[in-house]
Write a structure and sequence with these properties.
The protein is mainly alpha-helical. It has one domain (79-280): MetI-like fold (Orthogonal Bundle), CATH 1.10.3720. 75% of the residues lie in helices and 0% in strands. The protein has helices at residues 2-13, 21-49, 53-57, 70-76, 81-112, 118-127, 133-147, 153-177, 181-189, 194-223, 226-231, 238-244, 251-271, 273-279. Helix 8 packs across helix 10 (194-223). It is globular, with a radius of gyration of 24 Å. The two termini are 39 Å apart. Belongs to the binding-protein-dependent transport system permease family. MalFG subfamily. Keywords: Cell membrane, Membrane, Transmembrane, Transmembrane helix, Transport.
Amino acid sequence: MSQQIQPAKVMFDGPVHGRSPLHKYIFTGVVVLLCLWVLVPIYLLAVNTLSSPEDVNAFPKSLFPDLNTDSVSFFLNFAGVGQALWSSVKVATVTMVLSILAGAPAGYALSRFDFTGKSTFRVLVLMTRAFPLPLLALPLAVMYIRIGLDDSILGLALVHTTLALPFAVLITYSLFSGIPIELEEAAWTLGCSRLQAFQKVIFPLVLPGIAASAIFAFVISWNEVFAAAVLTIENRTLPAFLLQSLSFAPLHLKFAGGAVLVLPALIFIFLVRKYLFSMWGIANR
């Protein structure tokens, strides 16, 4: 009996599972490097955004410069920024609506129904992210010109919906899978139809998660730059506008524009982290 128990003890306490001092140091070092990899660019972006234009271009730089909003004011009053911001809001809003209208029913169907090709369909949903957008850009631009969707809010929103739809499907799938089907069956026994059971029982429970999925789709569209740069000219979104302005825009405008792009994404990702962890199989975070 003791010979059977001893190997198990060694397996849990030994270095195989990273509990030796060396593995702890390596693990801690990797975590610190990853945190620095994420936080240092955010710190530099925030500091340069809240510095005066003179401090942004000065060298050497102070580690904690005086806070100044002149760079932000310059960015907001720069020609074309307002229109680009408004275009970004419109494209991201349309993308968010289309992603939920198409993704939530697909997530519900994957969660509740068994049908031929279900596993294949889930793989295909993920495979849509395997094709790089630059590879599809030229034929997409030609097709859009032929059908009149080039340089339009709807045309760009359709491309962004294609990018956001796999995440919408997977997030809503995890949401519906987390609700016991017995709740729906109980509603059916009380006289509700499937639609009424969904409306009265399921929908209130998944509404926060669907809102989180919608916000995530909004963020994907908000930060997308390649399709916006290729498919739009007059209706450029803010990322495409900043990319177009790289060659002549002053440095403090670039930092302020980067902060405007990053800040909503950071806030939204923080708010929906619970549902993202659920989608990736990490619970209770």
